[in-house]
Specification:
The structure is a homodimer of 269-residue chains. Chain A has 269 residues and is α/β, with parallel strands linked by helices. The first copy, chain A, has one domain (3-266): TIM Barrel (Alpha-Beta Barrel). The first copy, chain A, has helices spanning 3-13, 38-50, 61-65, 68-81, 98-111, 125-132, 150-153, 163-174, 192-198, 216-223, 236-239, 247-266, and strands spanning 17-21, 56-60, 87-94, 116-119, 138-144, 157-158, 161-162, 180-184, 203-206, 230-234. In chain A, helix 6 (125-132) links the parallel strand 4 (116-119) and strand 5. Chains A and B meet through helix 3, helix 4, strand 3, helix 5 and helix 6 of A and helix 3, helix 4, strand 3, helix 5 and helix 6 of B.
């Protein structure tokens, strides 16, 4: 999916919601555990319930890798259950020297049909470059993350602002808004105005609302641009809204609440 | 394997060589391609040929993930082919918010029996912490990497030295030499003396000799400590020494040459 197609989906659904599939066996409804592949059954149901309200899905690879081969199988099947009009993100935080990043790019952009992959910037230019060579695929580079540890290195002061600001400026110069996005945590809503000065056009993937405490209103107020420019992710707040027989309805309801709030903010752009 | 057992292996084999299994179908000998799992056949042969000279193996996950499920199967089987007295590293550069890093730790330290995992420090304390909770497992955090892109962010100047120096100091305070190592590229041999002032006791995983141009002599001169404290990795220079019928002998020969050179440097500690 390219940038314009993503914007069209956002306009149609009046939503910039991304649903995070951080699926854990210990948290899904008990009645699914008899299924052959409970993770897939759960994900499929969640996708069916939330896809009227979400424009994107984010698969958090760690949750699948923990189960080894069977987890990768569940991940593969989950990918097939996501409707074609949704933008699909591999949240895998990959990145390595050039010849190795090339293999990760192949994994997520060829072997598997993801639209986007999260990438860590620590190793610099040649670690990010191979991902940018794909047309109509997005590299989503970590900028300022939502967790408490983000202060340790991302907020170190350099001669040119904080480390994360150097990351945003330098990485933005390696690509363009059609192949690059950045992760900016919702818990840093006060930074969005400054970040929009550095990145007026890029989409930002924003985790951290819900369980992590970020605030959709402020993120939207300072983060929206003329094309929307935001994908706001919620994982636990939607997918674990209930662990009973009503889990689909509960997830749909939480997704719908976020979508309705987003619709009001979209009216201002 | 714990730190003392690793040191014992280094003393027995008179080697601090790590062989990197960056295995690609396009580079292995043609006659293996008829096997059921050519990647596994190749790795098994390389391991048999090099294990007299190597104390560690490093599996570069990207090379396996690119083939999807079949790649993960080859990786699983490869793990089983590595002798028990070798230290096994998952080179996966993982790292995410706390609840997700916990899943990656489970993947590589429970689901799979790795001794160590490479981790990116960009997301800070809670992204590294979950890996450090395992006894007799090592978290190998990226410090100063061997690639050209390392200059982009690792060498930014902060009030407290370069970014990578902040990483070494801060991350070292979260663990100890029994559960932490750092990646320092061989192409930065001139930095090893300074780095040893910050990290006198930690093991350093050193990629970048051979294909990337790093120099074993200088790395050893400035990097060895009283317990050795180095694992020097070679991947392409060993495993692709020949792609003919003599690939095992050629790999053994390259590994032996490095081991013999290492033996002379070990005499000085």
């Amino acid at each position: 999916m390219n940038r314009q197609q993503l914007i069209d989906q956002i306009r149609q659904k009046k939503s910039y919601l991304c649903v995070g599939l951080d699926t854990e066996l210990s948290k899904i409804p008990q009645h699914l555990m008899a299924d052959d592949d409970p993770i897939y059954s759960f994900n499929k149901a969640i996708i069916e319930a939330t896809s009227p309200y979400a424009v994107a899905y984010k698969i958090n690879l760690a949750f699948y890798e923990q189960y080894g081969l069977s987890g990768w199988k569940s991940m593969e099947k989950t990918l097939q259950a996501i409707p074609e009009n949704c933008f699909v993100i591999a949240d895998a935080k990959r990145g390595d020297i050039g010849n190795t990043s090339k293999m990760y790019a192949k994994t997520f952009f060829e072997t598997y049909p993801y639209d986007a992959l999260t990438v860590s910037p620590y190793m610099g230019h040649d670690s990010v470059g191979p991902f940018l060579e794909y047309e109509n695929k997005f590299t989503i580079v970590l900028g300022l993350t939502s967790n408490s540890g983000s202060a340790d290195f991302q907020l170190l002061e350099t001669q040119d602002g904080h480390v994360y600001e150097s990351v945003l400026k330098k990485v933005a110069s390696w690509g363009h808004p059609n192949n690059l996005m950045f992760v900016i945590g919702a818990t840093k809503a006060e930074k969005f105005a400054e970040i929009r000065k550095i990145l007026p056009d890029h989409f930002l993937l924003v985790p951290g609302i819900g369980a992590q405490g970020g605030d959709l209103k402020n993120v939207s107020l300072y983060g929206l641009n003329k094309d929307c420019g935001l994908l706001v992710n919620s994982s636990r707040g939607i997918i674990y809204a209930s662990n009973g027989f009503d889990f689909k309805e509960a997830a749909a309801n939480e997704a719908m609440k976020l979508q309705m709030e987003m619709m009001t903010y979209l009216q201002s752009i």
